[in-house]
Amino acid sequence: MSAPVPPFPPLPLSAPESSLTIAQRLFHHAWPVLVAQLLSMSMLIADTLITGRYGTLDLAAVAVGSGVYISIAMLLVGVLQAVAPTVAHHFGARRVDAIGPALQQGFWLALMLALPGIALLAFPGFLLELSSVPADVAGKTRDYLLATAFGLPAVLLYRTFYAFNNALGRPRALMLISFIVTATHVPLAWTLVHGGFGLPPLGVVGCGISTAIVNWIAFACGAGYLARNRDYRPYRLFANWQPPRRRDLLALLKLGIPMGLSTFIEVSSFTLIALFAARLGAEAVAGHRVVANLAALIYMLPLAISIAILVLVGQAAGAREPARARTTVRVGMGLTVALVALIGVLLWVGREPVVALFSADPAVRAVALGLVFYICIYQIFDAVQTVAAHALRGYKVTFMPMLLHALCFWGIALAGGYWLAFHAPGREQSPTVAGFWEASVVATVLASALFGWLLHVVMRRPQNVQT
């Protein structure tokens, strides 16, 4: 008979930890999350390359459709991220019996959120009309979104598992599942789009079908991992299954809705900036897209470290160890800013060959090179506000950060950027996409200051934080 499995890691969470130890724990947690995120991004890139070789209309449809799909999915996934701080607090407080029920309620919430999400994906007419999508592209976009709708429940269920697994400090399984999903999606999408093995070519719909299939594969892998891993047995995740509990669901929604809206605000602001920039011509849009892609790639690093910070802060807050939580924030902030600053310097030094990888058009390169300076500065302050926002989530503080996100990203980056691009003195006759990036830099500087102030207040008043 095997020895019983300890419910927690051998190292007691209450043991004093040095800055070096915390840095090691952050890296141990962050690097698998980073790999998983990059693999997920590669699926979107693969869809663009695969449909681009099939037809222009299908490429346009996947560009529009993926934007709609990501906006809806990330809004709902953001709500489900409430599972992470909830479970992290239970883990830190050693409330073993509360961990399994928290996951179960997260799964119920995922299924409930899937209903409005499926409706939006299956009937996206009003969204496409708002964007003035041409009729031929809109038709293909509808078919793509309908195909992805079948996989949305799996996305939300898997992301609940994703948040749960992160909260327990076990991100390597997420990296492995992301590799399986990506390795499956690329050949499957190619086959469904272009035809093969007796299947007719489906065009952009093939990408949607493949996306739905691999989302169910991801959830099946996650569920199998939970069921078979011995380390999860003490939590009795699938025993005594509970029905939906109003109090627990409302607690998750109270915590998660602001998180989902914060994510949506950030994603939608960049989507809308791209739409407004379309008025400036193809070269401006393409140049903006190049630097936006670079910014998204760089952002994966601070996001991965921030997720690790959320988990460690949540565990420390649950254990009522404010000193460890503060040290985690301080070490995490220093590491993130230092790494992003280094990347910014390297990007600035190698900006010309890097931009050349994205476009061979001299006009597009000229626009992109004129914007590189802004993202080098932008990323540093964005890293600060990202770390602070996730640390606040670890403390279960989400409503005020949502308001700050709306002020900075919608009020300044989007509205202010529109004014700077088209109506600022001297630009009425010669508008420029640089206005949006100038406003984005101002927005992130303000966001870093406001989030930093709020985090300082919360860290100094740990007795007011929920556990």
TrEMBL record:
Pfam families named among the record's database cross-references: MatE (PF01554)
Keyword flag Ion transport: yes
Protein name: Multidrug-efflux transporter
Keyword NADP appears in the UniProt entry: no
Coiled coil regions, renumbered to chain: none
Protein location: Cell inner membrane
Transmembrane segments: 62-84, 105-124, 144-161, 173-190, 202-228, 249-277, 297-319, 331-350, 362-381, 402-422, 434-455
Keyword tags: Antiport, Cell membrane, Ion transport, Membrane, Transmembrane, Transmembrane helix, Transport
Provenance organism: Aromatoleum buckelii
Source organism phylogeny: Bacteria, Pseudomonadati, Pseudomonadota, Betaproteobacteria, Rhodocyclales
Membrane topology category: Multi-pass membrane protein
